[in-house]
């Protein structure tokens, strides 16, 4: 845990969040500034700055993140209509919080390519 990290502080319960699900590896909560009717962030409890820090030994964590993302999307009723899973990595991708987070976006038609 990093005391300077916003999402570590959410994991610790120091900052409130609208948590939709949690397990021993990951936490899922609603984005404070949603870009779609469903906008959930799935994060590891462990601090990793971005997807660029993922390596072969993170297999279990990655599986937990994606399984949680799928459950969160289904929980919002997006299983049939579809949804988008996004990992922004670094400045050009617009990453603004340096704690790995998987965006789950759904509930409207999403444009492609992204801006
Ligand atoms: P990024 O731009 O790094 O890929 O995504 C960061 C996301 O975190 C943004 O969508 C932003 O709205 C969200 N966010 C930033 N601060 C908070 C917060 O304090 N609580 C919640 N729930 N989401 C946050
Ligand atoms: Zn962190």
Structure description:
By secondary structure, the protein is of the alpha+beta class. Helices cover 21% and strands 22% of the residues. It is built from two helices and five strands. The chain has a five-stranded antiparallel sheet with strand order 1-2-3-5-4, covered by helices on one side. The longest helix is centred in the middle third of the chain and has 17 residues, at 59-75. It is globular and about 35 Å long. The protein binds guanosine-5'-monophosphate and zinc ion.
Gap between N and C termini: 32 Å
Number of strands: 5
Overall pLDDT metric:
97
Note the overall shape: globular
Number of helices: 2
Oligomer: single chain
Structural class: alpha+beta
Output the strand order for the largest sheet.
1-2-3-5-4
* Percent strand: 15-25%
Q: Which cofactors or ions or other ligands sit in this model?
A: guanosine-5'-monophosphate, zinc ion
Report the order of strands and helices.
HEEEHEE
Helix proportion range: 10-25%
- Which sheet architecture does the biggest sheet show? 5 strands, antiparallel
Give the C-alpha Rg. Answer: 14 Å
Q: Extract low-pLDDT stretches.
A: none
SSE layout:
Layout: H1 6-12, E1 19-22, E2 26-30, E3 38-44, H2 59-75, E4 83-86, E5 102-106
Antiparallel strand pairs: 1-2, 2-3, 3-5, 4-5
The structure holds guanosine-5'-monophosphate and zinc ion (ZN).
